[in-house]
Design a protein that fits this description.
It is a single chain. By secondary structure, this protein is mostly beta strands. Helices cover 7% and strands 32% of the residues. This is ATP/GTP-binding protein. It comes from Nocardioides panacis.
Length: 74
C-alpha cells in the first residue's frame, strides 16, 4: 500500500516473466514491452461511485521509474 495524492493505492511489482503483453504507461505514455518488469497500481477505492465499481477497474501498468517519479509529472 502506498499513498498518492491523498488516496491509498495497492502497488505490486511484476516480474518480466509475469508480463506477457504490452501496456501503455500512464506516466510517460510509452509502451511497456512484454517480459519487462514493471509496477501495477490501483486505488483502494474507485473514483466512480457505482454499486459494481472497484478500485481494480482503475489498475494501471507503469514503468517502475515512472511510478517512482509520478509526483514530478503533471
Amino acid at each position: 500500500m502506498e499513498t498518492w495524492r491523498g488516496e491509498e493505492y495497492v502497488v505490486r511489482r511484476l516480474t518480466g516473466s509475469a508480463s506477457t503483453k504490452p501496456y501503455r504507461c500512464p506516466g510517460c505514455h510509452q509502451v511497456i514491452r512484454p517480459a519487462t518488469p514493471h509496477t501495477l497500481a490501483w486505488p483502494v477505492l474507485p473514483s466512480t461511485f457505482s454499486s459494481t465499481a472497484t478500485g481494480l477497474d482503475e489498475r494501471r501498468h507503469w514503468h517502475t521509474a515512472c511510478w517512482a517519479a509520478r509526483d514530478a509529472r503533471r
